[in-house]
Write a structure and sequence with these properties.
Helix content is about 20%, strand content about 30%. With about 160 residues, the protein is of the alpha/beta class. It has a single domain (about 10-160), classed as Cytidine Deaminase, domain 2 (3-Layer(aba) Sandwich), CATH 3.40.140.10. Strands 9-8-7-6-2-3-1-10 form an eight-stranded mixed β-sheet, with helices on one face. A two-stranded antiparallel ribbon has the order 4-5. The two termini are about 30 Å apart.
Length: about 160
């Protein structure tokens, strides 16, 4: 594993974009909100440095209605893989509102998806709210392991705690 990754964002995995479109449609008429996480491109089999958006993190306690989605910021993890945000505009407007711009400070890219939530119904923006290009990339996503430790890891940690 490389300690320092390239910060260049190469794009978003097709499967991740499909998930976003479906989640936004299922949440309609309320707004959908999530945070984008990326993986190293080489880990995904690409022969170049950079990152690819592979995950959407939905924060527990997010409250949404047709006009907004509110996240409890104290619930948002400090995640090294975090690269931005995604939310929907049920009214179909594909540009950031003033309220959106106030939340665009963290991350490299912010995706807005509008009704009717098809492949042409989304745009990517930078932190200043300027539209930016975000390629959809065909990569095979790694099997997600919610818990990336084993029982042996747990037992070893318990033993270590007992000796402290």
């Amino acid at each position: 594993m490389r300690l320092f990754r390239s910060r260049e964002l190469l794009g978003i995995a097709r499967e991740t974009m499909e998930f976003i479109l479906e989640a936004c449609e299922e949440t309609h008429p309320n707004e959908y909100m999530g945070f984008l996480r990326a993986d190293d491109a080489r880990k995904l089999g690409l022969d170049r440095d950079g990152q690819v958006i592979t995950d959407v993190l939905v924060i527990p306690g997010t409250v949404s209605n047709p006009m907004s989605a509110t996240v409890k910021t104290n619930m948002k993890p400090n995640d090294i893989r975090s690269v931005g945000s995604v939310h929907s505009h049920p009214n179909g407007v594909l540009r950031p509102s003033d309220e959106d711009l106030m939340t665009f400070g963290q991350g490299q890219v912010h995706i807005i998806v509008g009704a009717p939530y098809g492949w042409g119904d989304w745009r990517a923006f930078d932190n200043e709210g300027e539209q930016t290009k975000l390629d959809v990339i065909d990569v095979e996503l790694p099997e997600e392991q919610f818990f990336d430790f084993t029982q042996e890891d747990i037992d070893a940690e318990i033993r270590d705690e007992e000796y402290r």
